Amino acid sequence: MHFEILVEDRSGKKALDILLPKIVGGTHTFKVHPYKGIGRIPKHMREARDASKRILLDNLPRLLKGYGKTFAGYPEDYPAAVILVCDLDDQCKKMFRQELFNILEQCNPQPKTRFCIAIEEGEAWFLGDLDAVKNAYPQAKNHILNMYINDSICGTWEKLADAVYPGGSSALSARGYQAIGAEKSIWAEKITPQMDILKNRSPSFCYFRDKLRQLTGVHK
Q: CATH topology for 2-122+200-215?
């Protein structure tokens, strides 16, 4: 099977390029497409005015329609699916998912699609495996990590920064948005190789893992 994975930034791509082989094995193929931010679902399913800006949700109606047409030409013995991976941030999960399904319903033909939402942010998947965080950062502050509640709305990247970054999230925030993005990429590079996909305690990560494995016929 082939997977087209849509993520909102480069740190997400770095993490998934490492995680996908662990989840689906070596017999399946995938390509992870990073975008430059999550954006917003366009009103009335309109096409993005400037697709070159590569904002994920702004382009989603166009992308899913395109995948529907492309996947229709795939052979039956080599099916394909598109997987959207994005952060929930401060949105209502139920309403957000319904908006995503509304986009999919406008596609003819519809591509096989799964929507996988990290709650609250992608760093929740790292914090779902505290052993991986500690292996990547032996000096991590255990008292901060041990207080974390999986998939809680708590300022997730800040929580991870407080545990592993010198000076914590306040010091990282003071360096600006680009520095935060760069540090998130470093976390992906260092923590993801340590992760055990079967022991992760993040419910949203487990949902992502299980949806991919179900599509490939692996149910455990």
A: Rossmann fold (3.40.50)
